[in-house]
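Methods — Computational structure assignment.
A single polypeptide chain was analysed. Its primary sequence is given first, followed by the predicted tertiary structure written as structure tokens.
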Amino acid sequence: MAHVLIDPPAASPLPPTPRHSLLRTLLRDRLALLGVVLVVALVLVAILAPWLAPYPGEGRGTANVDAADLAPSAAHPFGTDELGRDMLSRILMGTRPALLISISVVAVAALIGVPLGAIAGYRGGWIDEALMRVTEVFQSFPPLLLAMVVVALLGPDLKNAALALAVSWWPWYARLVRGEARSLRERPFVAAAEAIGVPSRTILHRHIIKNSMTPVLVQATVDVGTVVLAAGSLAFIGLGAQPPAPDWGLMVAEGRSQLFTSWWVSTFAGLAIFVTVLAFNLLGDSLRDILDPRKAER
């Protein structure tokens, strides 16, 4: 009897891993790749700024009046300010505090907002109503205006500015996670966990918060750039970092009175803020494309 060879069934393709999704997104979307490159570059600059800055002392605020108001040149590629401080060094040294304050604000806001939103969405009832009314009180003020009020009460300082921004930012995370929690509490795996007697605290942590982290991660990435802009705005009006701190918003404020004569002081500091906001927005968009399964199927 002749033997009939039967081809084995073709193996079903494995779902793409997060690493493969990242590579595929970066190869397909050049803007996403640009965002990743810019963010990595910013982090490296923040770490290596004391060694990259040609004049680290001037970057930290030491004056050099003999070199005041010099236009961009080979010795000072970004020029100098009215106190003779090298602007390239100032901007490089300002990268670390800009990223630190932004990441700190977003982290504190998420640590406050995520648990409150998860509790409100999962519990519902009067707990949801009470927490959401408190959230709405904070959201009734524009974040920057509320931060200005808090800093005015605490005093102008970089730490106070960070605290003020965190106070004004957490309600957005509470709202975001509440919506996710209201959807997740109806899922079968949550009902099964409740049926077998899993404690509510465990359900909140393991099933609600963990499954809500995708939109939180995307929002947090975008917010890092937004907080850089907000912190720079506070410094610009004198409510954030104080001289001689290497703060980008403070540099823009210091150069505005001589914008037509020493344009480079405000221009390069403003470009640093622009590039940082752009980088984290592009990174946030690429993360959304990678982590959103509905887009991954397309």
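Note: Residues 29-48+80-296 form a domain with the MetI-like fold fold (CATH 1.10.3720.10).
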